[in-house]
Amino acid sequence: MKHVSRALCLPTPALAALVCCLFLAACGPEVSGLPKPPPSFGGLKGALIGCPSMAGLYAWPPVDGEYANGMATNRRPWDGGRPVPVSRGGMQIKVEQTGARVTVRSRDIGPGSLPSGQARNWSYAEYGVAQFKCRSNMLEFEEVEVGDAANYGGRAARRGFTLARLKDGSLAVGIKTIATGRTASIFSWGDQSAGDYSAPDKVYWSWSKLQSLDPATN
């Protein structure tokens, strides 16, 4: 890497940050949220080898985290259907796992739907072994392009997710959205701005805790 003089990092805070980003490439993506479940969810379940199983039957809406206290009416929860399509009403979410595949299913059990023992209309999504990896007792799933980039301030967006089994048997689901193609203004005052430049990507994390419906964990 070529040497760049420290004089480029000027004392004016905004200009110094801009110059250092452009010439030193020292500014990585901005991050909102955490890449692991919040402490309020409780501890992660561990495994001697690899990751613990995520398989089980869980309740929707979440009991903690994102969507636990209501959902926006202008945006579908888990937009894009990853890890599985969900609605604003009561649902069951089932995770099935083998060594080479993870299948996530969901079905409506809200008012007007069949009792859970009779409901058969599952939505589902399957993920092959090439689409996820085990890291720090969590399963991290690959990011794919999504169509709601404008909601995140960029020209394009990618979304992935993480599954983490908790010690109390619940499932933590982390949604990771990366906004790319962002711009910012060098100078702005009021509603005026001048001098756009390419801003760093921004990573958004949100986590939901799904209660286990397995009697053995309740």
Q: Strand fraction band?
A: 35-45%
* Terminal-residue CA separation: 56 Å
Strand/helix succession: HEEEEEEEEEEEEE
User: What's the total helix number?
Assistant: 1
Shape verdict:
globular
Query: Could you list the spans in which at least 5 consecutive residues all have pLDDT below 50?
Result: 1-11, 20-26
Characterize the main sheet. Answer: 7 strands, mixed
> How many whole angstroms does the radius of gyration measure?
21 Å
Could you describe the 3D structure shown?
With 218 residues, the chain is mainly beta. 6% of the residues lie in helices and 40% in strands. The protein has one helix at 13-24, and strands at 30-32, 56-60, 64-65, 91-97, 101-108, 123-128, 132-135, 138-146, 156-165, 171-180, 183-189, 192-198, 202-210. Strands 1, 3, 7, 8, 9, 10 and 13 form a 7-stranded mixed beta sheet that branches. It has a 4-stranded antiparallel beta sheet with strand order 2-4-5-6, with no helix packed on it. Strands 11-12 form a two-stranded antiparallel ribbon. A hairpin with a 2-residue loop joins strand 7 and strand 8. The longest helix has 12 residues, at 13-24. Mean pLDDT is 80; it is low at 1-11 and 20-26.
